[in-house]
UniProtKB/TrEMBL annotation:
Signal peptide positions on this chain: none
Family assignment from sequence similarity: Belongs to the transketolase family.
Cofactor: thiamine diphosphate
Name this polypeptide is given: Transketolase N-terminal domain-containing protein
Pfam annotation, one family: Transketolase_N
InterPro entries assigned to the protein according to its UniProt record, in alphabetical order: THDP-binding, Transketolase_N
Alphabetical UniProt keywords: Thiamine pyrophosphate
Length: 287
């Protein structure tokens, strides 16, 4: 399983870079840092069915850091929610793949996100709702460490400790870089693990790019009697050396030369074929 997930993650990285390059805009840094997290969730952890995305017993996923939509779109496509060539319509006029996820446009999206700080609260509500509806499911929320500058997250952590839903897992994409600087420069948070634990919550730390460590963390969260917060240590722009750890690549356009360099590092076997499929897909949809 581990090898398959790692191969999936490699392809998803290539898809992210290709779709952002074609769009001429989009958030590459935070999308690339979240690849293994999302791949493990959709490839092994979550109960979900692309053929029945509204199944009441499906596990729910919320991308609280909505600007990382390219990563979520690439994963949803990879696991069968919509045709892969549609990825190349990212941010195009009329496309279902908007700059931030839209609940009403695309199957597999549980919550429209973009304004940071809302996901954990919404996820808590979804988790508690399962006790009312009688449906058995888990809820996973992915947020950024920079996003934790938003105070509502900490209100949500307090509420998580009060209600203690057993089916809620929050994952922090802990890449330590924000839009215009490092997390330490923008708003120092000290030990995030200590802060989470001081709210009475379980905190599990792992390498967010190591599939085995991620799977162990998700298993530990599933065995926890109550909510769990996974601190997944990641690298912004992971996989593309000139992007890694650079705040400039939070949302910078990927130019042609940069695209070629990135794909040389990631492997470009399928990029040209996918772009050709995209042209045909857009032409077909226009007619």
């Amino acid at each position: 399983m581990t090898a398959n997930l790692e191969m999936d993650a490699e392809q998803i990285r290539r898809d992210i870079v290709t779709m952002i390059h074609r769009a001429g805009s989009g958030h590459s840094g935070g999308s690339l840092s979240a690849v293994e997290i999302l791949t493990c969730l959709y490839g092994a952890v979550m109960r979900h069915d692309p053929g029945n995305p509204e199944d009441s017993c499906r596990d729910r996923f919320i991308l609280s850091k909505g600007h990382a939509a390219p990563a979520l779109y690439a994963v949803l496509s990879h696991y069968g929610y919509f045709p892969k060539e549609e990825l190349m319509t990212l941010r195009c006029l009329g496309s279902r793949l908007q700059g931030h996820p839209c609940r009403d446009r695309l199957p597999g999206i549980e919550l429209s996100t973009g304004s940071l700080g809302l996901g954990i609260s919404a996820g808590l509500g979804m988790a508690l709702a399962s006790g009312i509806s009688g449906d058995s499911y888990r809820v996973f929320v992915l947020c950024g460490d920079g996003e934790l500058n938003e105070g509502q997250n900490w209100e949500a952590f307090m509420a998580m400790n009060k209600w203690k839903p057993h089916n809620l897992t929050v994952i922090v994409d802990y890449n330590r870089v924000q839009l215009d600087g490092t997390a330490q420069e923008i708003m120092p948070m000290g030990s995030l693990r200590d802060k989470i634990q001081s709210f009475g919550l379980k905190a599990v730390c792992c390498d967010g790019h190591d599939v085995d460590q991620l799977m162990n963390a998700f298993n530990e969260a599933g065995d926890t009697r109550g909510p769990c917060v996974i601190l997944a240590y990641t690298v912004k722009g992971k996989g593309v050396s000139f992007m890694e750890g650079k705040s400039a690549w939070h949302g910078k356009t990927i130019g042609d030369q940069e695209y070629e360099a990135a794909m040389a590092e990631l492997g470009a076997e399928e990029s040209c074929a996918m772009q050709s499929l995209a042209v045909e897909y857009v032409r077909k949809e226009a007619n």
